[in-house]
Structure formats: structure tokens, C-alpha cells
Amino acid sequence: MKNNHMKPIQRRSLRDEVYETLKKAIITLELAPEQRLYDQELAEQFAVSRTPVREALKRLEDERLVESFPGSYTRVTPLNTKEAEHAFTVVAALHALAARLSCSKLQASDVEKLQRKNEELKQAIQEKDAMRAIEVDEQFHGVFLEAAGNPEISRALQAVIPKVQRLEVSQFSAEGGKQSVHQHEMIISACQNEEYEKVVQLIENNWLSLGKFMTEGR
Fold first, then answer.
1. CB environment 88-121: b (16+ within 10 A), e (fewer)
2. How far apart are CA 47 and CA 89, in angstroms?
3. Could you write out the DSSP letters of every residue in the chain?
4. What is the predicted pLDDT for the residue at 12?
């Protein structure tokens, strides 16, 4: 008798694993801007063939995190403040859209999660843990993304958010972090008061002000 539950198990491809690993290394600056990348060297490091490495590098190139010069070399894309500035504008608009779709759907548990993540963000800033701060901030805004129920917004964000995060890591500061914590508190308060349009405006401003802080200097 056929069992509908007995289906082939989907395993993550080597290409995806290599892609995710390289992407994280680029965002965290473990792979520095303008650092040259050699597929053979990376293949040996990951203990895989060159094929998944090349496929991952091509995908990263499409996302402008890697650039190649035919017949010459491949390298991590240099930090580009102007490009990041444009990315912040797109990120702000997408998160504002997620907020508009999700505000009226938020439950008490969602607001509690927002409060918890903002406390975790405050702690990460105090500890000067840039990657933890960025991770928790992403989880804070993820509450709205999940409640919005529109996966296309998340897919669109995946294409631009690495440019933002790379700049955040390179220019991380307690001053900018404290500003975000305060803005998050205002967002939470507006959610509790069911001031939905205010939530949308605050979230958009949260990203735009961070972008201005990062791209125009302190």
C-alpha cells in the first residue's frame, strides 16, 4: 500500500550551503571588501568540488556581493556607500509595506516578542556585539514580516538587505544602536495604542534614519 508520507527527503544542495556560508562571511566582513576569491581554494576549504563554489559565486555576483573580471580575477565587491544609500531606501519602503499589512493582525504575543527583541538589541549594543545586534534587529522587524503573510516582501528584501548589513557591520556604533532602540520603543508604543499609520511611518523612518546615519557619517 502506498504511503503518501513516504516521499523523498529534500536535502539542501552543496551549492546552497556554499552560497549561504560565503554570503554570511561577506556580510560579517570575514571576507573583506575587495578580497580576491579563488574557486579552487574555496573548494578545498569547503571540501567540495569547484562546481558548487562557482555556482555560489555566480549567484553572489548576481546580487552584487561579488564581482568578477573575465580572464583576471573574482573579488568581494567593495563597500559602496551610494549603493547602500539606495538599498536603505528600498528596505525602508518594503518594511513599511510589511507594517501596513500586518499592524491590525498583531497579537499580544507579537508585541511581547517586539519588547523582548528590543531588550536583546539593547544588550547586544552594550556588549558591542555588532552581528548579534543586527541579528536581533532583523528578528524585531521579522515580527511584522511574518504577520504580513506576504512572502514576496521577504524575497525582495533578501536581494538588498546584505548591502545594508555589510555597511552596518563596518560602521557599527553604540550611538546608532541606541537610536534604533529608542525608535523601536516608539514603534512598540504605537502598536499598543493601535496607531497603525504611525507604526508604518515610524518603521520607515527607522530604516531611513539609520541609512542617513550610516551613509552621511556621524
1. bebbbebbbbbbbbbbeebeeebeebbbebbebb
2. 39
3. ---TT--PPP---HHHHHHHHHHHHHHTTSS-TT-EE-HHHHHHHHTS-HHHHHHHHHHHHHTTSEEEETTTEEEEPPP-HHHHHHHHHHHHHHHHHHHHHHGGG--HHHHHHHHHHHHHHHHHHHTT-HHHHHHHHHHHHHHHHHHHT-HHHHHHHHHHHHHHHHHHHHT--HHHHHHHHHHHHHHHHHHHTT-HHHHHHHHHHHHHHHHHHHHH--
4. 62
In the numeric block, which cell numbers belong to residue 178? 541606541
155-179 burial, b for 16+ CB within 10 Å, e for fewer?
A: ebbeebbbbbbbbbbebbeeebbee
Rounded Cα distance between 75 and 38, Å, is 8
Name residue, grid cell 544602536. Answer: 177
The gap from C-alpha 73 to its chain's centroid, in whole angstroms, comes to 27
pLDDT digit of tens for each residue in the chain (218 aa)? 344 543 443 456 788 899 999 999 999 999 999 999 999 999 999 999 999 999 999 999 999 999 998 888 899 999 988 888 899 999 999 999 999 999 999 999 999 999 999 999 999 999 989 889 999 999 999 999 999 999 999 999 998 999 899 988 888 877 778 889 999 999 999 999 999 999 999 999 999 998 888 877 54
Matching residue, cell 514576496: 152
Q: Which three cell numbers stand for residue 161?
A: 538587505
